[in-house]
Amino acid sequence: MRKYGLLKLFYFIFSMATGAFQFLNLFYADFGLDTQEIGMLFAVGPMVMIVAQPFWGMITDYMNSAKLTLSLMSIGSAATILFFPISTQFEHLLWLNILFFFFQSAIPPIADVTSMTMLESRKEFGKIRLWGSVGYAVGVLVVGRLLDIFGLDLMFILYSVLIVAALFLAMKLPVKPAAKKEFHMREVLALFTNPQFALFLLFSFMVHLTVHANNSFYSIHMQDLGASISLIGIALLIKSILEVPFFSLSRQLMNAFSYPMLLTAVAFVYGLRWLILGVSTNVDILLWSQLLLALSFSIQYFVAVAYVDELTPENYRATGQTIFWAVSLGAAGVIGNVLAGWVLNFVTIEQMYQLAAAVSFISIAILWLKPRKHAAENG
User: Is the domain of 1 the same as that of 14?
Assistant: First the structure.
């Protein structure tokens, strides 16, 4: 169907832009920033997400117009990014990061909400989202090569052009305009009193603590074991490529298993992967353990989007998705990175991964907790 083709192309182009942006750390180093300043800039994104994502989610639900908020966010991020290469001071980059992530961070969850409204079944989402993984891999490969030839400043122009192209596609999506829905802040707050939603957020927070710790220290760990930068790049690429077949199996997996059962498998696979990183020093094994990361990430992504869509009322689904992202990428990102850095003052990186494995395994119990009230009613 044409609308599905537009959705696939949107995810492909948006994720290609995201892949192109993975070279930002090289720009910062070339800019002359020290490691502490670079760390501060990378900490800005998750901190801004905690506020920005629920803000844009509530605006989307209040206005009942995902296209409007996608337009504002895309134009804002595409314009802001163009100021990065002409900045002359660290303070300029700091404020630009705040502004950029304010606009950019909520684009994925709002796009996911839009996709869910267009799909005939939640179980089809993975087959749409897999094109994001393809786009990300292409972005890393193609844009990386172009930056080698033309310089790092081209990254910002390419990102801006790709985001505008993705917005053009989003505006073509056959989403019917609708009148504003009933929207009350007390109903937003009531989402947190839904035991299943609250437990799911807690589970996601715990799992993502370990994911963010890995994202920050995996490359360093591989380098310490003798891996080259190019080999580390291959490891990151392997994950994106291997996500594709797992996303394509979303319908079959969600037909066969419940959401909690699939999320249990996700946490177990994450834990297994961290355990391998915590006990093995074989670079080849650690490289191909990316297979486990691709499996857990892809299943978690399409299950989480569908589960939040099911758990939240129709009028508040954009808010629900952005709250999930704010908890998983925002709060867990900030705390996971800080906590991992603090823990590494006392233990080795292998021991940190062993602790991460324990956290992942423990998080499984949260999914199966039975709310007290519900338990009493069924006892």
Answer: yes
Q: What is the pLDDT of residues 274-295, one digit of tens each?
A: 999 999 989 888 888 888 999 9
Measured CA to CA, the distance from residue 18 to residue 14 in angstroms comes to: 6
Q: Which two tokens stand for residue 280?
A: 């093995």
Q: Which H or E element spans position 357?
A: helix 349-367
For position 142, which CATH number holds? 1.20.1250.20
Residues 76 and 143 in one domain: yes
Query: Containing domain of residue 314, as a range?
Result: 185-379
One domain for residues 91 and 190: no
Burial of residue 231, with CB atoms counted within 10 A of its CB: 0-12 exposed, 13-18 middle, 19 or more buried:
middle
What does the alpha-carbon distance between residue 301 and residue 296 come to, in Å, rounded to a whole number? 8
Q: Say if pTM beats, i.e. exceeds, 0.70.
A: yes
Same domain, 177 and 190: no
**Cβ count near 303 (within 10 Å):** 26
Is residue 202 domain-shared with residue 158, that is, in the same domain? no
Number of compact structural domains in the chain = 2
Report DSSP letters for 140-209, one per residue. Answer: IIIIHHHHHHH-TTHHHHHHHHHHHHHHHHHHHS-PPP-PPPP--HHHHHHGGG-HHHHHHHHHHHHHHH
Predicted confidence band of residue 378 (pLDDT cuts 50, 70, 90): very low
pLDDT digit string, tens, across residues 301-339 = 999 999 998 888 888 888 888 899 899 988 998 888 888
User: What letters, b where the CB count within 10 A reaches 16 and e where it falls short, cover 271-284?
Assistant: bbbbbbbbeeeebe
Buried b (16+ CB within 10 A) or exposed e, 50-82: bebbbbbbbbbbbbbbbbebbeebbebbbebbe
Instruction: Convert the pLDDT of each residue in 54-68 to its tens digit.
Output: 899 888 888 878 888
Task: Select from 156, 181, 206 the last residue of a domain.
Answer: 181
Given 160, 181, 202, which residue is the final one in a domain? Answer: 181
Q: Assess whether 162 and 206 both reside in one domain.
A: no
Cα–Cα dist 169/160, whole Å: 14
Instruction: Identify whether the C-beta of residue 178 lies closer than 8 Å to the C-beta of residue 60.
Output: no
